[in-house]
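Problem statement: downstream parser choked on a complex file, so we are re-checking the raw output for the xanthosine-5'-monophosphate run. The parser issue turned out to be on our end (a line-ending mismatch), but while we're here, posting the original submission so the record is complete.
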Amino acid sequence: MSTDLDPSAARARELTTEPGGLTTDGAGSALPAEQPVEALAPERALATDEVVVLDYGGQYSQLIARRVRECGVFSELLPHHVGADEVRRRAPKGLILSGGPASVYAPGAPALDPALLELGIPVLGICYGMQALVRALGGDVKGAEVGEFGRSRLTLAGDGGRLLGGLPAEQSCWMSHRDTVFAPPPGFTALASSSESPVAALEDVERGLYGIQFHPEVVHTPYGQEILTRWLTDVCGCATDWSPESIAAEQIERIRAQVGDGRVICGLSGGVDSSVAALLVHRAVGDQLTCVFVDHGLMRKNEGEQVISAFRDHFKVPLVAVDAEDRFLARLKGLSEPEAKRKAIGAEFIRVFEEEALALEGAAYLVQGTLYSDVIESGGGTGAATIKSHHNVGGLPEDLEFELVEPLRALFKDEVRAVGAELGLPERLVWRQPFPGPGLAIRIVGGEATKERLDTLRDADAILQDEIRKAGLYRELWQSFCVLPDIRTVGVQGDERTYGYLVAIRAVTSDDAMTADWARLPYDLLEQIASRMINEIREVNRVVLDITSKPPGTIEWE
Ligand code: XMP
């Protein structure tokens, strides 16, 4: 299941994730650890063309792979040390060498294996990738006095060659480097320069070797996507047919091949990953799939019903919905400490799921919503499986052994959403903001999550969501939610003094939950939200706004 009820799992995932924000410096991100390569391969029957991106440790490496896919070409991100044979095994149509934090002259800096240039496919070096290429082929690359970080002006030399020809003679681009190419290797043509880079792009069309110093993958390089598309299609000859439709078709085939006539079980959390994984499996093997939805009573208002109605009524997926609210509330009794709550919820969840799994005789397969970013960030298959299977496979008794079905293992989150939309998943589920496994229990801060408090928090949260959606801001926010601390404050409503709950509003923008900024919600919207909460919820008499970014705060309060 993709439900993640374990805080240590969630935090562990965070720690394995590189910050993906568009800061100016390529330095500082660690080189990928040496991992067994087989674990990283999504192992697919190649229905579409593929381009391999070799990761030299750049902060934008994942983004390069995503941008290639956005051009309609499947791409895999592999560690730089995999070697030419491993790349050849995938039969890619092109090879991209990513940026990286090291100077090509730093001790231990990853050198370019010359065999990678003899694969008979076009190669594109980006930033460090270009410098390593130039160095390997005898060009002049040196550490410059002045680095070039951030926005820069690119000036084409001559007609811009095959890679840049026809683009504006002057354009802006995003740079992040200190090592600089001063002269191309023999056989290459310099295509452009920038203020600090005498050679900012080069090519050897004959040998199919290309290099760009700037980052085409970041939005601050306006022609970046066009340059990538041109390289992928004109130079590599890739067909651009990697689309939500082709992804779904391919995954459905793969699931059929894996599962045969076996029975499959899938835990639905209501989030987009488990929903899309379940739908793909259902399309593949129909009623051989049974979904289990455990309603722990800690969901947002009406969310349980939405999941049940989408899957059972609309998609006609066999669904066991377990109303386990009483069991969870009983387990939470007397608990106010955050980790104690999480542990209790996690343990109870396993128990409930185990009972349901045992009741489903003959189920041999378990669906997991593992994403490609989990695979990359945990450095390979096994680690990724541990993160999300923690409570399912790892936590279930030995006689309940499942083989994992992971239909999202090759996909980035935005692709999962696109596939979800393709499969007809309701917009609300496709775009649902992340929601923690332990749900509202960890938003009742410093106190016990009782039914009464949960209901108050649920009502406040429903108003917040409603107003944020009406204001058209839901998708712009990474998360928006309410927190109910275990304190009361004095108020005056009508002629009476009240002693009621305080609700805190937390709304953040973020790319990946590693860092976050508090969202500048319009004052009028905040006023409307606060006044509705106080008027519509008897127990609430005060509303405050959390203006802490992450770091130093976390997104959740517990
Ligand atoms: P923090 O609070 O650490 O949260 O900034 C980062 C992201 O993780 C989510 N989160 C959790 N998710 N189980 C989960 O499945 C948990 O115990 C948990 N704690 C935090 C949080 O909502 C945010 O998206």
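For whoever reads this later: The pocket of xanthosine-5'-monophosphate is lined by residues 4, 7, 10, 342, 434, 436-438, 479, 513, 550, 554-556 (CB under 6 Å).
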